[in-house]
């Protein structure tokens, strides 16, 4: 079964078997994981997390699914990474699906290309479990998602305010949510948010933005990119938002390397195609191989699940994008 984010939110309590979330919207991933964890805590469901570093890690996952604690009646296992199971592990997955009616295997992956989605692994999950696409392609979908966030904050936006917010953040849902939080804090007595409130609160909020950081790393200007990164960190920009910006550029460059003729189809603005092509010219395929694991490390460090400094890891991402790694 294939469902979207809003449908997934309504089915969390009944989630069993195998669920797979894939996409490039960190806000949607973050919200669903929080909703799952809250539900597990409320119903005393034992939770374990695994990060995939190799195909062999899948065997560990299935061993854990078969070893329920004496103190638990249900088990939820989160698996994070971008490594599909091999034939042996796929067989274990099918056995789990057939014989497990109470536990939940929740797999969280970055956005997959069309070929991956046609693989046996994804076809098995879609046919026997739940595949959640973390995407919001249309303006209506993005507004519906953000409207839930606004309602939770006790505010409503006028039509013009929604249009301005969409344009200001160029479809970045996480950044838009942060702006909703900021405007709600700035105008605590104001339930109806007009475009003037957003402009007053957000237009001059910083000297640099995450978009400036994107441009600097694509130009390969390490000094300027580092300056912008430090400014954003010192001004209180969420580390998860900075990571979203850098991971978006990394994934676009990796995709463009594989599909050099498909820049527009990948979502790169026409006036920035040359900038991405120049960036590719100074990067190598060998560097790309290290990026997915680096992004997973940063994400885990931001969430407090790794004993590493997320600020230093973000600096490493900036240096990597500029073609000048800090260390190997």
TrEMBL record:
A cellular component annotation (GO) from this entry: DNA polymerase III complex
Residue ranges occupied by any DNA polymerase III delta N-terminal domain in the UniProt entry: 20-133
UniProt domain DNA polymerase III delta subunit-like C-terminal: residue ranges: 210-315
Any GO MF annotation of the entry: DNA-directed DNA polymerase activity
Isomerase found in the keyword field: no
SUPFAM superfamilies reported in the protein's UniProt record: P-loop containing nucleoside triphosphate hydrolases (SSF52540), post-AAA+ oligomerization domain-like (SSF48019)
Catalyzed reaction equations: DNA(n) + a 2'-deoxyribonucleoside 5'-triphosphate = DNA(n+1) + diphosphate
Keyword flag Protein biosynthesis: no
TM spans (from-to): none
Record keywords, A-Z: DNA replication, DNA-directed DNA polymerase, Nucleotidyltransferase, Transferase
Biological process, per Gene Ontology: DNA-templated DNA replication
Pfam families: DNA_pol3_delta, DNA_pol3_delta_C
Chain segments annotated as coiled-coil in the UniProt record: none
EC number(s) recorded for this UniProt protein: 2.7.7.7
Family stated for the protein in its record: Belongs to the DNA polymerase HolA subunit family.
Name recorded for this polypeptide: DNA polymerase III subunit delta
Organism per entry: Acinetobacter larvae
Organism ancestry: Bacteria, Pseudomonadati, Pseudomonadota, Gammaproteobacteria, Moraxellales
